[in-house]
Amino acid sequence: MKHQHPPIERELARFQEFLQVQGLKLTSERSSLVREIFATHYHFEADELLGKMREKDVKISRATVYRTLELLVKSNMVRRVHLGEDHYHYEHVSGNSHHDHLICTTCGNVIEFHDEVLEQRQREICERKKFTPTFHNLQILGVCDACRRLGAQPDAPDRVKMIHANNLLRK
Amino acid sequence: MKHQHPPIERELARFQEFLQVQGLKLTSERSSLVREIFATHYHFEADELLGKMREKDVKISRATVYRTLELLVKSNMVRRVHLGEDHYHYEHVSGNSHHDHLICTTCGNVIEFHDEVLEQRQREICERKKFTPTFHNLQILGVCDACRRLGAQPDAPDRVKMIHANNLLRK
DNA sequence: ATAGCAACTGAGACTCAGTCTCAACTGGCG
DNA sequence: CGCCAGTTGAGACTGAGTCTCAGTTGCTAT
Predict the structure, then answer these.
(1) Residues of A with Cβ-Cβ distance to B102 under 8 angstroms
(2) Which is nearest to B48 in space by CA: B91, B79, B7?
(3) CA dihedral defined by A107, A99, B159, A157, rounded to 10 degrees?
(4) Distance set, CA A146 to CA A64, A84, A114 (Å)
(5) Which nucleotides along chain C are within 7 A of a protein C-beta?
(6) Quick check: A61 CB within 7 A of strand D?
(7) What local confidence, expressed as pLDDT, does residue A163 receive?
(8) Can you give the pTM of this predicted structure?
(9) Which of residues 73-132 of B touch strand D (CB under 7 A)?
(10) A11-15, B40-44, B92-96: lowest mean pLDDT where?
(11) pLDDT tens for chain A, residues 1 to 171
(12) How many whole angstroms separate alpha carbon B156 and alpha carbon A155?
């Protein structure tokens, strides 16, 4: 059971280095949050993270959760993504695998994908427009295979009413 | 001056037809909002629209603005887009020109583009994943040519602090 | 044309994610 | 090991968006 998550220790070290460079401190709250985030293999919401810390009787305030997420985003260890709902979701960056999302508007499932042709074409478009890209975000909304077999019809592209991925989150 | 916007009348007729099919009514509030939206050639926020109606002494409540926008999105006449800020922006759909966005994180300017190679590749990816797409949303954040010449450095992919595009809105 | 009624509206209370404030606390450098 | 900048928690605050409900209005059928 011990040493089950050596990668988490590596991430913690990475975060500590980032903090040190900025003249910031690695507090117990920050390291608990990093451990939790990197043990979670799914997209999560800030308030879900807060709830999970409370469940574990690790007392951390809402403000600290948001402040720490901000630092993690700045350090490129966490990415803030839109998944069709009207607030942010977060996902940790493992290694450096950029990916985009297919989002099922029926069951809320999120399928990640990466496609180099798409990436390359975007770089070409930016070059043509003399635009220096730093980041991009592609969501494709629709209906996944399983839901389509069950007869789900594609929604209008209105606000997606997603089934919360809480059950997936706690994996 | 009169007959300056015949296309707007066409849009109104389109909306009325949509409403009729749904058993809904074309009220004076709804038609004022449609006129305003289709006379505006830029991305706007719900509250900006509310403000513009107030400036013109057309009294429409916040709730009605949101309700009408929802109907317009359902009728595919207006699209709800994320532009890097934490709330929605809207844009009317002229004809049926789908496009994506390059967003300058320095000046807030938004460049629209459409690329058939990108679209086709996305369709291929969906097919391979057996996913039935209904809609997609691609934002590329970065620094535009003008800002780069002025020495702007690309931000970390943190929350974009955009200069509000209000000045652009009122064209 | 007009009565009737479902659809619609406005005012403002409400929700919910996210931010801010400030007094009390603490990590880590000197 | 003392100091103090950086950090935290509690809870007030903000701002976008939603909801409620009593009063109003567009439309259809008479």
Answers:
(1) 125-126, 129, 131, 133
(2) B91
(3) -40
(4) 39, 19, 21
(5) 6-13, 16-21, 26-29
(6) yes
(7) 34
(8) 0.77
(9) 87-88
(10) B92-96
(11) 444 556 788 899 999 999 999 999 999 999 999 999 999 878 899 999 999 999 898 999 999 999 999 999 999 899 998 887 788 999 998 765 788 999 888 887 889 999 999 999 999 999 999 999 988 889 898 999 999 998 776 654 443 433 333 322 222
(12) 35
User: Locate tokens 């920050």: which residue?
Assistant: A30
- AA identity, residue A123: R
pLDDT greater at residue A165 or residue B125: B125
B39/B49 Cα distance (integer angstroms): 12
Q: Residues 91-120, chain A: which have Cβ within 8 Å of B?
A: 102, 104-105, 111, 113, 115, 117-118
Q: Which nucleotides of D are covered by protein (CB under 7 A)?
A: 5-12, 15-20, 25-28
- Chain B nearest CA to A170, separation (Å): 25
**Nucleic strand D under 7 Å from the C-beta of B18:** no
**Which of B94, B116, B105, B106 shows the shortest CA–CA distance to B43?**
B94
- Indicate the residue type of A58: V
Q: Alpha-carbon distance A82 to A87, whole Å?
A: 7
pLDDT at res. A2: 44
| Residues B138, B84 contacting (CB under 8 angstroms) | no
A152, closest residue in chain B (CA to CA): B132
Note whether B130 contacts A: Cβ–Cβ < 8 A.
yes
> Å from B155 (CA) to C19 (C1')?
21
Decide: residue A135, CB within 10 A, 0-12 exposed, 13-18 middle, 19+ buried: buried
Q: What is the pLDDT of residue A108?
A: 78
Burial (Cβ within 10 Å: 0-12, 13-18, ≥19) of residue B154: middle
Q: Which residues of B touch A105 (CB under 8 A)?
A: 134
At residue A77, the pLDDT reads 92
